[in-house]
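cron nightly-structures :: item 1 of 1
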Amino acid sequence: MTGNRVAVFELAGYRYAIAAAYVQEFVRLPTIVPLPKAPPIVEGIVNVRGTVVPVLDIRRRFRLPERRPHLMDHLLIVRVDRRVVAFRVDRAIGLQDIDPRDIEDASTLSPGTEYLAGVAKLPDGLVLIHDLRSFLSQAEARATDDAIADATEVRP
């Protein structure tokens, strides 16, 4: 993992992070609208300042227990290339600088960690650094785009 500034958030009692370069903002949770025909990884869609944004289910991807949306949840809005997506997280912790020497490559730890870029070893515990480029497969990305197009298409 290159770079050491990350946005840290909490999910199911664990701390995760995403490279700060991808993060647009943290926002309070608006109403998530279910999206018919979307792949299971899509929790629904939200309106963020006039833009329809898919909310991806990070809990499902990391095999964490499901949890209904709560008023105290946050959305982490991120941009990867031209795609804007949101993750529902339990709590936004904030930006943090991590010494690159304290980051271990996740692929050396265990198979099945393709969604992690690294694991930061901090004095107060571990932070799993999420790899946004591998979160959605190409098929999931296409299915999500198609479901959003179907849902937002104006019909006569």
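cron nightly-structures :: done
Residues 8 and 63 are 19 Å apart (CA to CA).
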